[in-house]
Amino acid sequence: MLTAFTAALLLITVSELGDKTFFIAVILAMHHPRRLVFTGVTAALAAMTILSVVFGQVVSLLPKAYIHYAEIALFIAFGIKLLYDASKMSAACDREVVEEAEAAVKKADLQLPKQKTSLGIVIEAFVLTFMGEWGDRTQIATIALAAGNNPIGVTIGAILGHAICAALAVIGGKMIAGRISERQLTLIGGCLFLVFGVVAAIEGA
User: Fold this and answer.
1) For residue 113, is it left (φ>0), alpha (ψ between -120 and 50) or beta?
2) Quick one: which of 70, 126, 127, 155 is 20 to 30 A from 44 by CA?
3) Would you call 14 exposed, middle or buried from its count of C-beta atoms within 10 A (0-12, 13-18, 19+)?
4) Which of 160, 159, 143 is CA-nearest to residue 53?
């Protein structure tokens, strides 16, 4: 359980910082009460984590050998892809992620009433974050971790990692965003995925 918790916490925290959903939280927190934004964002990420873990448990019903090799292949493939992406990145990539987040928030604002209630703000943060996170690499990583590790440890670690990133985004997101290098985070994330792929291979040997 401790191994699953640590793996999920590390992977999620590193992968989510500077991600699209991180900047969505930053932008929303600049226009709305931080506690409401934090509530909506964290609830969405927790819901996504629980769904991913449930799906991972369904996958775990497959033969153990298949799950083991699929987990190794997935982590190593993600690691190589992230390292490749990091090698191709420039400073402009950070701006592209921010612009995507800004566009998502503006689109939602146009569809919602000008005067938003507290519940409306929470729902907006929830929906934008949930949609932004769907199909993200952290979702797939959570599914892979849950398929081969303790589901409770993965759930707690992933939700805590998401909550930490959400708190950083809404409390000091604007200041932090200017100092986050997506290239460096992608590089670290790639290395982490490779490490967990190697660890999974060794444990199954």
Assistant:
1) beta
2) 70
3) buried
4) 143
The alpha carbon torsion through 187, 193, 199, 200 (nearest 10 deg) reads -170
Q: How many whole angstroms separate alpha carbon 123 and alpha carbon 24?
A: 13
Q: How far apart are CA 36 and CA 171, in angstroms?
A: 12
In the block, tokens 């959570």 appear at: 142
- Give the separation between CA 26 and CA 169, rounded to whole angstroms: 5
What one-letter code names the amino acid at 136? D
Q: Look at residue 49 in the predicted model and tell me its pLDDT.
A: 93
**Terminal C-alpha separation, the chain:** 20
Query: pLDDT class for 196, splitting at 50, 70, 90?
Result: confident
DSSP track, the chain: -HHHHHHHHHHHHHHHTTSHHHHHHHHHHHHS-HHHHHHHHHHHHHHHHHHHHHHHHHHTTS-HHHHHHHHHHHHHHHHHHHHHHHHH--THHHHHHHHHHHHHHHHHHHHS-SS--HHHHHHHHHHHHHHHHTT-HHHHHHHHHHHHS-HHHHHHHHHHHHHHHHHHHHHHHHHHHTT--HHHHHHHHHHHHHHHHHHHHHHH-
Indicate the pTM of the whole model. Answer: 0.75
